[in-house]
Write a structure and sequence with these properties.
Number of strands: 10
Mean pLDDT: 77
Helix content: 40-55%
Number of helices: 4
Largest sheet: 10 strands, antiparallel
Distance between the termini: 19 Å
Structural class: alpha+beta
Shape: rod-shaped
Low-confidence stretches: 1-35
Radius of gyration: 37 Å
Order of helices and strands: HHHEEEEEEEEEEH
């Protein structure tokens, strides 16, 4: 019945557009009002809202990561430019050195001046002047080029550093917000689970909580019981926890994950004791029943009609469970022992796990 738990998935990203707070508590049997139901509804809604908040921040974090990749590529281009600029500066410095060495070998500017003073003709004087002017021009041009290149290098280095610093600050802020929300979510999850465990121990359901439902949109006729998941123990798998093989399909998900009716039907039972903990059984057209077990909360009442994709509860780890997951069964009667392979049953209805 329970799953061999694997690590649950991260927060389901697709919940973020669907969740708002609501609280209209009624008893699970539909016969009265549980005084704790309002608190339960608020807690369930808080868990679901935090899922949505965490999903939004996760999307922002992923967008930041993609931006980081783009900025990283831009920064790498800057680095390549800086390498070329440093190489050009080295060439300019070598040119300056070559000019200086040439002047040194010719005696610098003094011999040229002396030649001009000692010139025997105007032509020789003009040649001396041109030589001095050309030497000064070459030096000045080389110095100007070197200074401009060094200024560009400093500016580009500053741009590259600014890109990385901006990106690191943004991702740091998002990561901090994500941690805060996840910490709140984890605390709310286990508070929800603690109340569910108390209900199971007392053998008395606390009553259905009310959450505003997601927009059904163009919901198909059949869907998976949870939106985002990892598959764990499958139908018929062996193990010391099951005398005759596992009777359903387990979906590894965190506590508080919304559980969906896989198809249209009627809730035939809501119970909260025994090995399955808090569980729901729904009858579907064609004589099949689906079971959703180890829940932390339910959002439907016995006798209630449900539609495909409607939220009917929240996952937990009540009953004979080794960790947070949804135990899902498909049966030909409402009772244990009449199960068929859920994966094959869903596949025949166009749903692939």
């Amino acid at each position: 019945m329970g799953s061999r738990r694997r690590h649950p998935l991260l927060v389901p990203v697709l919940l973020c557009a669907f969740v708002v707070l609501a609280a209209r508590p009624t008893d699970a049997s539909g016969e009265g009002t549980d005084p704790d139901s309002a608190t339960d509804s608020g807690l369930s809604a808080e868990v679901t809202r935090l899922y949505a908040d965490a999903a939004v921040v996760t999307q922002q974090y992923e967008a930041g990561r993609r931006e980081a990749e783009a900025e990283g590529a831009k920064a790498r281009r800057f680095e390549e430019l800086l390498v070329r600029e440093r190489r050009d500066i080295a060439v300019l410095h070598e040119d300056l050195g070559r000019i200086a060495r040439g002047q040194y070998r010719s005696g610098g500017g003094l011999p040229l001046t002396a030649q001009m003073l000692l010139a025997d003709s105007p032509e020789e004087l003009m040649r001396g002047q041109r030589a001095v002017w050309q030497a000064d021009l070459a030096v000045n041009n080389a110095i100007d080029k070197s200074r401009r290149a060094e200024a560009r290098l400093a500016a580009d280095e500053a741009k590259a550093a600014a890109h990385w610093q901006k990106l690191e600050r943004r991702n740091g802020e998002i990561a901090k917000l994500k941690r805060i929300i996840e910490d709140k979510l984890e605390e709310a999850r286990w508070t929800l689970q603690g109340r569910a465990d108390a209900s199971v121990a007392a053998g008395s359901c606390r009553g259905a909580v009310r959450l505003d439902q997601p927009d059904p949109g163009t919901m198909p006729e059949y869907v998976t019981p949870v939106e985002t998941y990892e598959l764990s123990a499958s139908f018929g798998s062996g193990g010391d926890r099951w005398a005759n093989g596992h009777t359903g399909q387990d979906f590894a998900v965190p506590i508080g994950t919304p559980v969906r009716a896989v198809g249209a039907g009627t809730v035939v039972s809501v119970s909260c004791g025994g090995a399955f903990g808090i569980e729901i059984v729904i009858e579907h057209p064609g004589g099949y029943y689906t079971q959703y077990a180890h829940l932390a909360a339910v959002t439907v009442d016995q006798g209630q009609r449900v539609t495909p994709g409607q939220w009917i509860g929240q996952t937990g780890t009540t009953g004979n469970s080794t960790g947070p997951h949804l135990h899902f069964e498909v049966r030909v009667t409402p009772e244990l022992g009449s199960g068929v392979d859920p994966a094959a049953w869903l596949s025949a209805r166009g749903v692939q796990l």
